[in-house]
Specification:
The protein is an all-alpha fold and about 100 residues long. The protein has one domain. Helices cover about 85% and strands about 0% of the residues. It is built from 4 helices and no strands. The protein has helices spanning about 5-25, 25-35, 35-65, 70-100. Helix 1 (about 5-25) packs antiparallel against helix 2 and helix 3 (about 35-65) packs antiparallel against helix 4 (about 70-100).
């Protein structure tokens, strides 16, 4: 999976969430249908799956079943996914800190 396909997956997830939000009749239904925790959990699971795929490719290379290019590609995809997750985490923390600085 290349970087454009990772971006495509993220775009599709955002599009699905938008469709779910539109499906509700009133604001409370739309708010309940979009679960931020579930979205974060799916993103973390994606990063973990990428790591497992990279591990499997590395083991396959040691056993002679996989090419070096496949291993490097899998590791690069994992690195991009992890960097994306860290960037999102940093933005969430920054937003939280900004909210905490607001006067009540």
């Amino acid at each position: 999976m290349s970087t454009p396909s990772i971006a495509n997956n993220a775009y599709q997830l955002a599009q699905r969430l938008q469709q779910q939000a539109r499906a509700g009749d009133d604001a409370t239904q739309a708010r309940d249908s979009v679960d931020f925790g579930q979205m974060v959990q799916e993103a973390v699971e994606t990063v973990v799956d990428k790591g497992h795929q990279a591990d499997d490719k590395a083991i396959g290379m040691i056993e002679g079943r996989t090419d070096v290019v496949d291993v490097v590609t899998a590791i690069s995809e994992t690195e991009v996914a992890l960097e994306t997750m860290v960037a999102v985490r940093d933005r969430v923390i920054s937003a939280y800190e900004e909210i905490m600085r607001m006067p009540i």
